Amino acid sequence: MDEQAKRRQDGPPKWRRTWAGGLALWLAATLAQAQGLSWEHGLRSDAPERYTVVRGDTLWDISGRFLRHPWQWPEVWQVNPQIRNPHLIYPGDVITLQDCNGRPCLGLERGQNVVRLSPEVRRVPVREAIEPIPLDTVRHFLRDHRVVDDPDTLDELAYVVAGNDRRIISGAGDRIYARGELQRGQRYGIYRVGERYHDAASGEALGLELISIGRAQAERSEDDIALMQVLSASQEVRNEDIVLPLEERELVSEFVPRAPDRDIEGTILAVPGGVRFIGRLQVVALDRGRRDGLETGHVLQVEQQGERVVDPRTGESLRLPGTDAGLVMVFRPYEKMSYGLVMQATRTLEVGDRLYNPRRGVGVAQR
Prior knowledge:
By secondary structure, the chain is mainly beta. 10% of the residues lie in helices and 35% in strands.
């Protein structure tokens, strides 16, 4: 008899029904939300009865140990507004599988004592808290990339016109001249024009990618020409590089993965850096954005396009049905496009693969 059948026959063990921190509530609601997940549905057949959290875990990983669909994180803090941080969990905490009125739920044990849920926040260094997703990948990307919604405004942006002493390229510590409305004493980002994103069907311009190469400070200006000092540079600064006010790109660390509120149909537009084949934890550009209803944390299913085959009887060229192949979570939406992180992939994804709302009844095995 398998473990799942045994649970149905014997009934759930009589563990203590206790809660701790935002995570316990988050995990419990995930399993007992409105969809009515039961011992037979929603729970992985190999879900452990206890799991000890270790450094390097993420909330997505932990959820995936118990749930078939780890993206189904609840929005419980909407009905519990006092819980500002939904991921209060630390290495050494123990997640336990429990029974809550006939449905599976999860509790949290911390040390020898049971910690009860309350609006209080345990004050520990941020570095100790378990992250919701692998945030380092996203942080590094946001540090180096941004998007201008309207590429036609490129000619209106400030830009480098020359290096000091007629230098063609400049670096940290050098002075450069830039043309545009630049304020003395203000710090700016220096960017190089990257990919221009367009809708494959309509040809509409979706955004212009800018790649960060350094920072500079305006020292003085005359008319519309400013003398600037390069404070830092990851690449050489060249003429025509774009100069923009630094973007507020503080990473939202409390991601709430969830399905979009409206139906979404789109495609993987590109992979920054020019890569075509895509795997787990790679950043991808999507051809849908805020105007389409996408927000930070929205999860989309990836459908890999079916192969083309020839009908052996009629000779017709046929396209086979697509196959669900992964999950992408949006972490930086712009007006007409977004950046997402591939959270799961059962096969190598590709540019052009279709995106749509995840189906709750269909899981994607994590790889």
